[in-house]
Write a structure and sequence with these properties.
The chain is α/β, with parallel strands linked by helices. The protein is 42% helix and 15% strand. Catalyzes the condensation of iminoaspartate with dihydroxyacetone phosphate to form quinolinate.
Length: 311
C-alpha cells in the first residue's frame, strides 16, 4: 500500500536513484507540474527529451508525447504513469485509414500534428506542433498540395491565416471542442476588456473571439507579458496553475463550457496521471514505452524534419 508514504519525498528519492528526469505538460495536475524538472508545451518537451542525459524519462503527459520522447531518445527508458493516457485526436486517425487517404491523394504531402500515433507519424512527411506549425507551413512551396491531419481546427486556423487550401482530416480535440460560444460571450460581458487567449485546437466560433491564438507556451507567455489584470484562458485549465504562480496579482479565468464553468474542459486523458502512478512508474520502471525499431526510424524522419524546420 502507498498509504503513509510521502509521495513527493519518495519521488524525489527515486528520481535521483534512477537518474531520471520528470517532464510534464502544462495540462498536468498542479502537484505534478510542481515537482517536474521541466514543464512545457509539446515542442519544448520533445526537445528536452532529445537533449537530456538522464537514463530515465518519466513523462507526465499523454502517450503520443511519451512515444515522441522514445522515438527521439531510444536508448533511454521512457515511462508513462498511465498507459491509457491517450488523446481524442490520435483516436480519430487510425493508421490504415490515414494510409488510404494518403494513397487517394498521391500529389499531396502530409503535414501532421504531433497529436497522433507513431504509425501515423511514420506515414507523414513533416510533423508540426501548435507552436511550430506556422513557421513550418511558411517554408513549404506555395504550389505544394497538403493534407493536414488529424486536427481539423488547427488545420482550418492555419488555412485561414496563410490563405492556403489544405485537405483536412476530420479529427477534433474533445477538450477544446467543449467551449461554449454563448457562455464565453456572457463571460466577456462580465469582464469588459479582458483579452481571450485561445489554443488553435478550439473551433472557429471560439477563435473568432480570441485576442491571441497560440500553443500552451505562447498563451502562457502572452498572459504574463500582457498589462491586463484579468484574462480569459480558452485552453485546458490546468495551465492556469503556471499563470497564477508567475503572476499572483492577476486574475485568470478559464473559458466556460455549456455548463458555465471550465470543469468540462479538463482533459480526461491527462488527468489519468497521478502522483501515486508517477511514484510506481519510477519505482518499477513500468509502464514503459516500447517501440519496434523499424516503426521508430520511420516516425523519426518526419519528427526530425519538424525539429530542423522549427528552428
Ligand atoms: P501544445 O502544448 O503544443 O500547445 O499542445 C496542446 C495539447 O493539446 C497537447 O495535447
Ligand atoms: Fe488530446 Fe485534447 Fe487532451 Fe491535448 S487536450 S491530449 S489534444 S484530448
Amino acid at each position: 500500500s502507498l498509504k503513509g508514504l510521502d509521495l513527493r519525498t519518495e519521488i524525489d528519492r527515486l528520481r535521483k536513484e534512477r537518474n531520471a528526469v520528470i517532464l510534464a505538460h502544462y495540462y498536468q495536475k498542479p502537484e505534478i507540474q510542481d515537482l517536474a524538472d521541466f514543464v512545457g508545451d509539446s515542442l519544448d518537451l520533445s526537445r528536452k527529451a532529445e537533449a537530456t542525459d538522464a537514463d530515465v524519462i518519466a513523462f507526465c503527459g499523454v502517450r503520443f508525447m511519451a512515444e515522441t520522447a522514445k522515438i527521439l531518445s531510444p536508448q533511454k527508458i521512457v515511462v508513462l504513469p498511465d498507459m491509457d493516457a491517450g488523446c481524442s485526436l490520435e483516436d480519430s486517425c487510425p493508421p490504415d485509414q490515414f494510409k488510404a487517404f494518403r494513397e487517394a491523394h498521391p500529389d499531396h504531402i502530409a503535414l501532421t500534428y504531433i497529436n497522433c500515433s507513431a504509425a501515423v507519424k511514420a506515414l507523414s512527411d513533416i510533423i508540426v506542433t501548435s507552436s511550430s506549425a506556422q513557421i513550418i507551413l511558411d517554408q513549404i512551396p506555395k504550389d505544394q498540395k497538403i493534407i493536414f491531419g488529424p486536427d481539423r481546427h488547427l488545420g482550418g486556423y492555419l488555412s485561414r491565416k496563410s490563405g492556403r487550401d489544405m485537405l483536412l482530416w476530420p479529427g477534433v480535440c474533445i477538450v477544446h471542442e467543449a467551449f461554449s460560444e454563448t457562455e464565453l460571450l456572457k463571460l466577456k460581458a462580465q469582464h469588459p476588456g479582458a483579452p481571450v487567449l485561445a489554443h488553435p485546437e478550439c473551433p472557429p466560433h471560439i477563435l473568432d473571439h480570441a485576442d491571441h491564438v497560440g500553443s500552451t507556451s505562447s498563451i502562457l507567455d502572452y498572459a504574463l507579458r500582457s498589462p491586463d489584470e484579468t484574462l480569459i484562458v480558452a485552453t485546458e485549465p490546468h495551465i492556469i496553475h503556471q499563470m497564477e504562480k508567475a503572476a499572483p496579482h492577476k486574475t485568470f479565468i478559464g473559458a466556460p463550457g455549456a455548463d458555465g464553468n471550465c470543469n468540462c474542459n479538463m482533459c480526461p486523458y491527462m488527468a489519468l496521471n497521478t502522483m501515486e502512478k508517477l511514484y510506481v512508474a519510477l519505482r518499477d520502471l513500468q509502464p514503459r514505452i516500447e517501440m519496434d525499431e523499424e516503426l521508430r526510424l520511420a516516425a523519426k524522419k518526419s519528427l526530425d524534419r519538424m525539429l530542423d524546420m522549427a528552428g
